Amino acid sequence: MRYSEMFLPTVKETPSDAEVVSHKLMLRAGMLRKLAGGIYSYLPLGYRAIRKVENIVREEMNRAGAQEVFLPAVQPSELWKESGRWNMYGKELLRLRDRHNRDYCIGPTHEEVITALVRDEIQTYRQLPRNLYQIQTKFRDEIRPRFGIMRSREFGMKDAYSFDVDETGAEVSYRKMFDAYNKIFRRCGFNFRAVEADSGSIGGSYSHEFMVIAATGEDAMVFCSACKYAANLEKAEIARPEKVAVDESEFATLEEVYTPDVRTIEEVCEFLDVSPQEVIKTLIFLCDDKPVAALIRGDEEINEIKLKNCLGCDSIELATEDIISEVTQSPRGFAGPIGIKCDVVADYSLINMKNFVVGGNKENYHIKGCNTGRDVKIRDFADLRIMKETDTCPRCGGEINFARGIEVGHVFKLGTKYSKAMNATFLDKDGAEKHMIMGCYGIGIGRTVAACIEQNNDKDGIVWPMPIAPYHVIITPVNINDEGLSKTAEDIYRKLEEKGIEVILDDRDERAGVKFKDADLIGIPLRITIGARSLAEGKVEIKSRKSGEIEAVPVEKVEDLICQRVREELKRHRG
Ligand code: ATP
Ligand code: MG
Fold it and tell me: Ligand 1 pocket test: which of 140, 208, 410 has the largest number of ligand atoms within 8 Å of its C-beta?
């Protein structure tokens, strides 16, 4: 492509409304423009990068035996009512109504549509397993769209859905996708990890997120320095501590203490001269409309996702003042487990605690000398807290590292959640009617491109890895008014195009400095500079965007060298 003919509006100034480097660079490099909050247009350079990712995804999905379909973006509400998500999904679901007053949504995901399709078309075990995928636009009315296409409202996703006859088959399908995702993200040149992720009440270790390591990542993750354990922080497990034998003679007698206006852990510690490790926080939650008290040591933080999974409820939120006073008979700040009028669950951190301080369920009172077993009836002890730096690996006891990541992909074992709700059955070998076992697998296409830039940039701009680069090479004649330079440039351009190399010829009548700056900004991996001095010796220069290395090569060799470099780089990522 000739630069002079390209629609490539690069910008010198850093845009003020962009927070992360990928968003800034995508705007500056003329890849992207905002239409409305969280809704973007891809310009030619941006769209080429998108297509590169799509093609890598497509190749690996096909290789893994998945088949491409293309499902409607607009979905009738009836399907969502069948699955129960029309009410569950909340405000992220963009709903619309047609001229006949029928309700629809713009698909934020496609479990309903695919389940309905497969339910109607597949009848027997002979037609299974199947894995169907699409690359399509989704809409989620995100509460806070940000970071450009990293978290937008309209975005491209590859979503795949597998259907199997049994658990064993579903496990095989899941593994295939897990392996394909590893290949995809390796080919994108990422430093990434697959981490165990929360899979809600469906349970098991059946959900993994693929995280690109980046300081700006929205997700916190942990990984063990000794074994392979890696998890999203919200899922990171804490091993159940051994229970140390207790001598009940050491139990103190309960003592109610007047603690006027003392509510927070810090205030309690100061007032009673104890450490947070000796105090228990009693947090009241509303779990599917039922109040539950969760107990945790004063210095720990509750993990609401773990609590939700432990209780097996659909929704969880901190209880309001009304509920608190109903179950504790006191205002907020004095809740305690003794005599509380709701179920009580306790974090493992309580297992070996003795004689601790709790709220008194009475305004301005706390209680000292509390002991579980004797004073409090605990429904369950469970892992309910957020892992912290001092914790160790739940698998091997090794040291745990914390990092931030960008979730680019997610593989998820759905089980029979949708096939049961929507009655997707098949006739098995034994003649029995069974529900299909499903899995779903997503990759954010735009987020992958953005994550790639987060990991590959410098002060001058983007540094594309070859497989995602919108073009492999840019040819920069330093002065197009010099006939010799211009002719050589045209010549190399034509030859490289013939060889299938994706190349830009910067044929603009601009100063060399301007051209170099743009080439660096848009991040093309290889630049061929054609200047009078080296051409007089029959040479041109090849510059690597990544290493900055410049190499003078004979004109007649440049074509072969470039082809070789491009192929090598693409192959290296393929692994
Ligand atoms: P997140 O926790 O980041 O909101 P999610 O769990 O809602 O993600 P999934 O429903 O698993 O995401 O969607 C599959 C993939 O789609 C994600 O791994 C991510 O790459 C991408 N994705 C999800 N939401 C967005 C968004 N708002 N903008 C861009 N990509 C997104
Ligand atoms: Mg989301």
Answer: 410
CA of 442 to the centre of ligand 1 (A): 8
Q: Residue 145 CA: which ligand 1 atom is closest?
A: 27
Q: Both 63 and 183 in a single domain? A: yes
Residue identifier of the C-alpha nearest atom 25 of ligand 1: 151
pLDDT in tens, 370-420: 999 899 999 999 999 999 999 999 999 999 999 999 999 999 999 999 999
Smallest-distance ligand from the CA of 211: 1
d(CA 530, CA 551): 12
561 in the same domain as 507: yes
What is the 3 state secondary structure string of 27-62? HHCCCEEEEECCEEEECHHHHHHHHHHHHHHHHHHH
Ligand 1 touching residue 158 (CB < 6 A): no
Are the C-beta atoms of 160 and 131 separated by less than 8 Å? Answer: yes
Residue 189 Cβ contacting ligand 1 at under 6 Å: no
Q: Which helix (H) or strand (E) holds 357?
A: strand 356-359
Would you tell me the crossing angle of helices 21-28 and 445-455 to the nearest 10 degrees?
100
Interval 70-127: pLDDT, tens: 999 999 999 999 999 999 888 999 999 999 999 999 999 999 999 999 999 999 999 9
> Within a domain: residue 135?
yes
Ligand nearest to the CA of 140: 1
Query: Position of tokens 């239409």?
Result: 35
Closest-lying ligand to the alpha carbon of 152? 1
Domain range for 568: 471-574
The distance in angstroms from the start CA to the end CA of the chain is 30
Would you call 290 helix, strand, or coil by DSSP?
strand
pTM more than 0.85: yes
Is 307 found in the same domain as 191?
A: no
Pocket flag, ligand 1, residue 107 (CB < 6 Å): no
Query: What is the number of structural domains in the chain?
Result: 3
